[in-house]
Amino acid sequence: MKIHGYSKLTLLDYPGTIGATLFTGGCNFRCPFCQNGGLVLSPEEEPIIPEEEIFAFLKKRQGLLEGVCITGGEPTLQPDLPEFITKIRALGYRIKLDTNGYRPRVLKQLIKEGLIDMAAMDIKSSKTQYHKVANIGNFDLSRIEESVDFLKENHIPYEFRTTIVKELHTTEVIEDIGQWLRGSQAYYLQEYKDSDQVIIPGFTPCTKEEMINFQTILKKYIDRVEIRGID
């Protein structure tokens, strides 16, 4: 398992859980506003943390930490992900997976085998605009739809979330997303932040008022809609 970094303590990445976060490398999307450009575009240039170091840390924190969030990059690209999670669970940790949902078979396997306790799936845009944001050739929306539909069957707690970018997310896009995700457990709007790590820097965050307006639109379709990243 190729782990390129980890956060020893998080109260945000795994809601309601005192946890640690592990970062995998590589991704099957090229979203221009992605904050982890190095992990996505050139993971081979990022240092790899030996599994021994990860498990030594997790063993030391048994009884103090409750869960582990596995994020990326896109974790479902890692061929040994199920085995890696199994070893973490053996230490008594709950597992949350962050995913873009483009590998529904892997997501389904992890859930059906009881390997993850929560999932967070990024929703990049509305169905009609998704291909523009994913920014890859031969994009197959049906993979995203399959993951969304499976999560909405409520096998485990989950959340959908969208990083909101002024240039990409209009009221029409948000309205379409709301109709698509109608009845979901939870949906989070996340504020975009420009940085040197963004794949294509220069996008703009929405104002607090615009984010609240999007939240109001989405609440017509989803009971729990919250905003992350604004004061």
Q: Which structural class should the secondary elements be placed in? A: alpha/beta
- The string of secondary-structure elements, in order, is EEHHEHEHEHHEHEHE
End-to-end Cα distance: 37 Å
Q: How confident overall, as mean pLDDT?
A: 95
Shape: globular
Summarize this entry quickly.
The chain is an alpha/beta fold.
Any key phrases for this structure?
single chain; 231 residues; alpha/beta; TIM Barrel; eight-stranded mixed beta sheet; 8 helices; 20% strand
Characterization of this structure:
Helices cover 30% and strands 20% of the residues. The protein has a single domain, classed as Alpha-Beta Barrel (TIM Barrel). α4 (104-112) packs parallel to α6 and α7 (171-180) runs parallel beside α8. The termini are far apart. With 231 residues, it is of the alpha/beta class. The chain contains eight helices and eight strands. The protein has an eight-stranded mixed sheet.
Write the layout of secondary structure elements.
Layout: E1 3-10, E2 19-24, H1 37-41, H2 51-60, E3 67-71, H3 81-89, E4 94-99, H4 104-112, E5 118-122, H5 130-134, H6 141-151, E6 158-164, H7 171-180, E7 187-191, H8 208-218, E8 225-228
Parallel strand pairs: 2-3, 3-4, 4-5, 5-6, 6-7, 7-8
Antiparallel strand pairs: 1-2
Helix pairs in contact: 4-6, 7-8
